[in-house]
Amino acid sequence: MAKKALxxxxxWDGHQPIExxxxxxxxLKTEGFEVEISxxxxxxxxxxxxxxxSLIVPVWTMGEIxxxxxxxxxxxxxxxxxxxGCHGGMCDSFRNNTDWQFLTxxxxxxxxFNDGVEYEVNMVAASSSSxxxxxxxxxxxxxxxYIHVDPCVDVLATTNFILSDGAHSANGVIxxxxxxxxxxGKGKVFYNSLGHNAAIFDIPEARELMRKGFxxxxx
Length: 219
Description:
The chain has helices at about 15-30, 45-50, 65-80, 85-90, 100-105, 205-215; strands at about 5-10, 35-40, 55-60, 80-85, 105-110, 115-125, 140, 145-150, 155-160, 175-185, 185-190. By secondary structure, it is α/β, with parallel strands linked by helices.
């Protein structure tokens, strides 16, 4: 039986939900998934359909989700359906919905230097996760996400917020998660804070992290 993935895209256009979803669809199809792309959160209304998926991929920034919709997603992931996504498309999707944030493991709160910051993504050397196996540290030029993080997540890659102008620097150098996983019932959740635009995934390491994250999370 083929693995089925549902990509739900929309919200703020600045995160290129169409372009990012097409990159993700291409990766998933290459890995043998049947991929459906939806442009509406109504796709979360059909809990029975969600329960039949292998993977849910949210690509939706700054929206509003109904209570019934989020409960359907929670139930599906708890049953074993995977969830995997990136950047604001997963962890800045619904700022007013704490159930979504509880599931996904973090919430964006700031990118102090805005877009175009050059910074390093460092793999966690002590991690035994297959997701980062063979991937070396790499540099990106993009937004550097400051996120509030669930303490139960398994952090696979980090970045350092160096001392700079801004009140946050009173805390010293801050090591911030970039890539992590967590469990939700029988389901597995993967997140990568990279992905401000589709071009990020032209970086081989960034693309490979998503590919391996999809495969790890999928039911």
